[in-house]
Design goal:
The structure is a homodimer. Chain A is α/β, with parallel strands linked by helices. In chain A, strands 2-10-9-8-5-3-4 form a 7-stranded mixed beta sheet, with helices on both faces. Chain A has a 4-stranded mixed beta sheet with strand order 1-12-13-11. Chain A contains 14 helices and 13 strands. At the A-B interface, helix 1, helix 2, helix 3, helix 4 and helix 10 of A face helix 1, helix 2, helix 3, helix 4 and helix 10 of B.
Chain lengths: 401, 401
């Protein structure tokens, strides 16, 4: 066995970044520290107490009294796939409200499950029109599941979930909600909505590294899983087996080796979010996003989404004519250490996506980005009034005090 | 929204443990530190360099020149499921060599995929008899895949893989190898074996926290995936899509948000393993395991597996008659901070599993465990000659010194 030399430095540094893309966001120092704790066994009684605490804290951020909660050992996409794989059997009908890139990902996944997929496509950048769902559900004798995304990360739209849930319930369908970008930054009301399955991710508004998907499951969804004719196609994401490990039925049955450090990180992220106070945290996200919008508008950069439907976590802005997407993003990254996101799907090359989530939702980051844009955009042929963006954002921050 | 008070302490401590179970093992301080690095975007060009390095280091520990490598965003079980889901289509025949608990997990997963599963069951605690495979393959016109486990964590057997691979190749079948417990602690020779897909886990002999599954894939396996009639049932574990993100085809296409901190941890764990030197690392694992066996035998605790087939990473020992499994394990945990593992499946309650993997493979931990056993076992009715285990282990360490 020959081995060439290893790269020399003992621990090459990861460059520091201000992460204002669609996630991962910056991670809180307390959460980073939590991961430094010593390793512990995944069946250790002291670790079980930690898992109980995580499940309890998740109920609070999901605002649920009765849902079963846990964190799946995968990213947000694993939470999406787990819902579709566990709630659908081949041939089941699922009606999917489609208004962005991540909605389309759901179509792909549900098709692989062998479900009868009914995609209801509406415009990107606007909330999904509820009447489309109502009309479609009337056409079917039995719909097993309706899916929607609370905060479409590709478009920046905040979708009202309550009315979709009411329509789904009226037609005896389960409702699955994507809360990847909303949990911890926006009010997520699992019980009030009447959701049956919701999933999120750790790296957006919870201030943790990516790698886990916190989920909430209603009693009706658990009943539906119990009544399956065959087990889900995925053993790794089998929610019944995973629930047994998380103690949903009282005991703890080994499933797979839990990602201990990520669970310790999540616990700290949740404690920090709840310590800040959910209403205060939502208000912080809203305040900073409002300042960002004001600043961008002062630079002539228009938001895709009408103000009343805009997410606080992610702001989607049109790239001005003649400006090349990647050139600006590279300049921001290399010149200022700031990451923002590009567009996905039909928005690729046409928009930037600016995330202000969790630890990244800070007034100073809003101002840093606007300053960097003011200095960078003219280099690429787009003239702006120097200082206009920062001034508008500062005013907005002051007026909301 | 009412909220009861949070638990008071800002960061409750995780109790320190000597982890001598089947994993997670103790994590190297350098690896813990690596996770403290700042977050970075999963499409950041500087992060791409880190991913390239991880893929390259993985080729070295898998001892492969040409395999494609990456780390999946899930635990070792995700690596198992990814292999079966991507290499099998419904109706494909898979012949599974079964000689332990984790082999049976493969049967469950492959059944969910809809494959024609042919389990070849042999005794637990002994290597799988190769002639069984040869005889079975002769009965089929076309077998798509043969599966085997290099290091069965439930039994402690080291399975020779080369001969199984030769037989599989002779019958034009792909070979999938579980290297969860072997990679980094035992010689894993992906190319020399002629394996087509191998997967491992970060929390065993690589000294990292659990949460990722490093995989290696041969050109033949990639061809087989290209020729699928339909995509794999799992989008999250679709190896072709994941390979595109890891740059297997030259470019980088977004798939899901990579677990950045875990990848930073894995990089450091791999650098540390290769820095120690693979032959030196294997020798360390063998030396400490040998000392452990000598000590256990001196206490009258017999190993399940004959010496010549024993794994260095995990030693499976019979629980003496009349001694209650959990009482002893609880005493070790609560009295000495030492975790050892219990039995799984048909070995439940009958054996203990002692892991000496990665950071946990240390002479001082061997001596600590033997001392603790010498003091604990008499409390539960099993008399031992005090000091006999430690003396035998010390002698073994000296003679190999």
């Amino acid at each position: 066995m020959t081995q060439s030399a290893l790269p020399e430095s003992a621990m090459p540094a990861v460059p520091p970044r201000i992460l204002l893309g669609p996630g991962p966001s910056n991670v809180s120092p307390r959460v980073l520290q939590a991961m430094m704790q010593p390793m512990i066994g995944y069946m250790d009684p002291d670790f079980m107490l930690i898992m109980d605490e995580v499940a309890e804290l998740l109920k609070r951020v999901y605002q649920s009294g009765d849902a079963k909660t846990m964190a799946l050992s995968g990213t947000g996409s694993a939470g999406m796939e787990a819902g579709l794989t566990n709630l659908l059997e081949p041939g089941d009908t699922v009606v999917m409200c489609i208004y962005g890139f991540f909605c389309e990902r759901m179509v792909d996944m549900a098709t692989r499950v062998g479900a009868n997929v009914v995609p209801l496509r509406a415009d990107w950048g606007r909330p999904f029109p509820e009447e489309l769902l109502e009309a479609e559900l009337k056409r079917h004798s039995k719909v097993k599941l309706v899916t929607a995304i609370h905060a479409e990360t590709s478009t920046g739209v905040r979708q009202p979930i309550g009315e979709l849930a009411r329509i789904a319930k009226a037609h005896d369908a389960l409702l699955m909600v994507d809360a990847v970008t909303s949990l911890g930054g926006n009010e997520v009301s699992f019980d009030d909505w009447g959701a049956d399955y919701a999933y999120s991710a750790t790296q957006k508004c919870l201030g943790c590294p990516p790698g886990m998907s916190p989920v909430a499951v209603s009693e009706q969804a658990i009943d539906a899983m119990r009544q399956r004719k065959q087990p889900p196609m995925s053993w790794y994401l089998d929610l019944s087996l995973l629930g047994n490990y998380w103690g949903w039925e009282g005991q703890r049955v080994y499933h797979h080796t839990a990602p201990v450090s990520m669970i310790l990180a999540l616990r700290e992220g949740l404690r920090q979010a709840l310590g800040e106070g959910l209403p205060e945290r939502y208000a912080r996200h809203a305040r900073n996003a409002h300042a960002l919008s004001a600043g961008l508008e002062a630079l002539g950069l228009g938001c895709i989404v009408p103000a009343e439907h805009r997410l606080a976590q992610i702001t989607v802005v049109s790239i001005p004519d003649g400006v090349e997407d990647m050139q600006v993003r590279q300049r921001l990254l290399r010149g200022y250490g700031i990451e923002i996101g590009g567009g996905l799907g039909e928005f690729a090359g046409k928009v930037w996506r600016v995330g202000l989530m969790g630890e990244s939702s800070k007034a100073e980051y809003v101002l840093a980005l606007l300053s960097a844009l003011e200095r960078s955009l003219p280099e690429f042929g787009y003239e702006v009034a120097a200082g206009a963006g920062v001034a508008a954002a500062s005013d907005a921050l002051k007026s909301e005090g």
